[in-house]
Amino acid sequence: MSLAFLPPKFPRFFAAVYGLVERIVRRLGPAIRGSHLERPFTAVERWTKAVLFDCRMCGDCVLPATGMVCPMRCPKGMRNGPCGGVRTDGGCEVAPSRRCVWTEAWHGLKVQERSREFAVVHPARRHDWQGRSAWLHTTPPEEDAATSSPAEAVLRDPASPLEGLLRRGVFAVTAEMTPPDVIVRDEFRQRLAHYRGCVDAVNVPDGPGANCHLSSLAAAALLIGEGLQPVMQLCCRDRNVIALQADILGAAALGVRNLLCLTGDGIGQGDHAWARPVFELDSATLLQTATMISAQGRLRSGRVLAEAPPLFVGATISPLAEPLEARALNLARKVAAGARFVQTQYCFDVPRFEAFMREVRDLGLHERCHILVGLGFLSSARAAAWIQRHVAGANIPDSLIRRLEHSSDPAKTGMDICLELLDQVRAIPGVAGVHLMMHRQAHRLSELVERSGLLAGRQAGAWGEAMPARRKAGTGVARSAQCSDS
Ligand code: SF4
């Protein structure tokens, strides 16, 4: 029987008892470790923690730093949560009948007046430590797994045209494209035509909604070949740490420079609900990994690469998902893990997004990463209701849905709403750009960009002097920039 519901209710008490036990055991550790007492000791630890915390014996216990809630109970195994899928009632995206463990962790830290610790990046899980005693084996600090500091990042050349634009303070425009399943070349080109000249970079999602599509790596390479600058999304759901790193290296070799790191949607949402979820890393540890490769030229194994590929590493954030008050600290954690730009989930509720940005500015995060606010086109009240139902954290205000319901021309009203929201979010201090998610409405992109004046007389993707000369010849980046400049 598990009493795991008790620690989140009394985090102070359990933290004090745990701390005491841990201190005593650590003193005895050298005598027990490696002796015939280690196995029985580990069995007692396993049983006690299982009853009290529903512990999974990951071998690297972070309970005191997570409000006495075991993060390994998260169905995605996130060591750094929450994901963006937390439901409005605090329920888990994957198992809605249960509360999100990271919402409980936030509550536990808050009660202990240690909420700032929510921004700490916890190292990735090691499978060879599974089942070992965390009390007997102290974990060495992760060898500065991230990162180049934001200051170092500014000193180096921009890795991509998008980074060049943002560093020059130009209000950037990106948009998301759902990759096709198969490539019939002309169809793909027609699809791309909606984006050409309208946006600075195009996001290619990685199995969005846990559905199988053309890989984001292949789609990104195709985009480069067509003269568009991709933001390649990479999620942790379907690959272990070896495959993730291989794809980062492969993408860099193909000229991809913008990399967006995500945890990924739960498998159950998609068209292969029986498939095995991997989630060996989460978005924060994937950010660390990509930054380690790019800034230090090193793999997680420690192996040093012949050359460090230049990457502009970014993350996603859901500013309007629960727990609302933890979202800015969640962003702080991603910035600490290496995020240099952030694209947000839909932000239709501007006053709430403004409140989020106030916290972001208080923490100084807008100076350490570029924030692109996510917006979408609502073509009808039905489309809005669909987004509201299926996209956690979208939070479309009722007033917008009513406006669409009562409109005789919902598409026109949808365009008006989008233009108004664009005007409002652009005025918020700290917003560096906009990320447009035009689900099945990409054909309206050019009208939207033109009427909003988003490009303000400049060419999409124009970045000019921001890119060092040595990168202007020969690479995929150079080709992308030249074409988008034209
Ligand atoms: S909502 Fe996300 S972070 Fe929270 S427990 Fe569920 S899968 Fe984990």
Low-confidence stretches: 143-148, 463-486
CATH class of the largest domain: Alpha Beta
How many alpha or pi helices?
Answer: 17
Tally of domains: 2
Sheet with most strands: strand arrangement: 1-2-3-4-5-6-7-8
Residue share in helix: 25-40%
Assess the beta-strand content as a share of residues: 5-15%
Mean pLDDT comes to 89
Give Rg in angstroms: 23 Å
Class by alpha and beta content: alpha/beta
CATH fold-level label of the largest domain: TIM Barrel
Largest sheet: 8 strands, parallel, barrel
Q: Identify every distinct bound molecule in the structure, by name, code or SMILES.
A: iron/sulfur cluster
- The overall strand count is 8
| Architecture (CATH level 2) name of the largest domain | Alpha-Beta Barrel
What distance lies between the first and last C-alpha atoms, to the nearest angstrom? 66 Å
Report the principal-axis shape. Answer: globular
Secondary-structure element string? HHHHHHEHEHEHEHEHEHEHHHEHH
Could you walk me through the main structural features you see in this protein, from its secondary elements to its overall organization?
This protein has helices at residues 6-9, 11-32, 38-53, 101-111, 150-155, 161-167, 185-193, 216-225, 241-253, 283-296, 327-337, 350-362, 381-390, 398-405, 410-426, 445-452, 476-485, and strands at 172-176, 201-204, 230-235, 258-262, 312-317, 341-346, 370-376, 431-437. 39% of the residues lie in helices and 9% in strands. The protein has two domains: 6-129, no CATH class; 150-485, TIM Barrel, CATH 3.20.20.220. Helix 9 crosses helix 10 and helix 13 runs antiparallel to helix 14 (398-405). Residues 143-148 and 463-486 have low confidence and may be disordered. The protein is α/β, with parallel strands linked by helices and 486 residues long. Bound molecules: iron/sulfur cluster.
